[in-house]
Known about the structure:
It is built from five helices and seven strands; from the N terminus they run H-H-H-E-H-E-E-E-E-H-E-E. A hairpin with a 3-residue loop joins strand 3 and strand 4. The protein has a single domain (2-155), classed as 2,3-Dihydroxybiphenyl 1,2-Dioxygenase, domain 1 (Roll). Helix 1 runs antiparallel to helix 2 (19-35). It has helices at residues 2-13, 19-35, 37-40, 63-74, 120-129; strands spanning 50-60, 78-81, 85-90, 94-100, 107-115, 141-145, 151-155.
Amino acid sequence: xxxxxxxxxxxxxxxxxxxxxxxxxxxxxxxxxxxxxxxxxxxxxxxxxxxxxxxxxxxxxxxxxxxxxxxxxxxxxxxxxxxxxxxxxxxxxxxxxxxxxxxxxxxxxxxxxxxxxxxxxxxxxxxxxxxxxxxxxxxxxxxxxxxxxxxxxxxxxxxxxxxx
Length: 164
């Protein structure tokens, strides 16, 4: 599944996949994962296991235009908002984050995995063992850059996000 997400992100960044196609594909992938998580998710050698794609957050030049499109076209309700961030609901437990960015080019900010039995200290320790650096010191959720440079967020599957 990770390879599929990486391929989708690459296609999005190269213009071979529109934002709409990306959102629909990611939502379909997340829905299929939540229907059969045991069949799709093999235990990781570290003992940690991602069980959901909690959310994807994009950076866009026009927050309100993008948010309105996803709300109207996909029926995603506005769950939280601030002057620079909108969080739209996707199903029961996932969301789509939209951040205002000064850049004229839209981009994926990060994606988030909900992890079974999430323990921030344990996850940080295992990432540090692999030479990866973690952002912040929250017990609820944090981000890190994977070996390929993708910004990844991890937390419990029921994480609902926060606007600032």
